[in-house]
Design a protein that fits this description.
Organism: Rotaria magnacalcarata
Number of domains: 1
GO molecular function: racemase and epimerase activity, acting on carbohydrates and derivatives
Low-confidence stretches: none
Protein name: L-rhamnose mutarotase
Order of helices and strands: EHHEEH
Strand content: 25-35%
Helix content: 25-40%
CATH architecture: 2-Layer Sandwich
InterPro entries: Dimeric_a/b-barrel (IPR011008), Rham/fucose_mutarotase (IPR008000)
CATH topology: Alpha-Beta Plaits
Oligomer: single chain
């Protein structure tokens, strides 16, 4: 069984092109990490007027609580630093 998790983020001004380029080049190890943690689909949509990012993840209902530990993972921390 899967659940959907949605959340929003804000994009820094004047970073739209860079943001899109970096996501077009998403790291294979990050994709693998997400799949290993029960995230089977992860889509992010950008409202360019408000710079709001709206994200939706399909996650295995048995792994939702384990996703809390993703923030501790070295790959995830490197990705966030890369995207900051």
């Amino acid at each position: 069984m899967t659940d959907k998790v949605a959340f929003t983020m804000k994009l820094k001004p004047n970073r739209i092109d860079e943001y899109k380029q970096r996501h077009d080049e998403i790291w294979p190890e990050l994709v693998a990490l997400l799949h290993e943690n029960g995230i089977s689909d992860y889509s992010i949509f950008l409202d360019e007027q408000s710079l709001t990012l709206f994200a939706v993840q399909k996650v295995s209902s048995t792994t939702i609580s384990s996703n809390d530990k993703l923030h501790e993972n070295e790959i995830m921390q490197r990705w966030w630093a890369h995207m900051a």
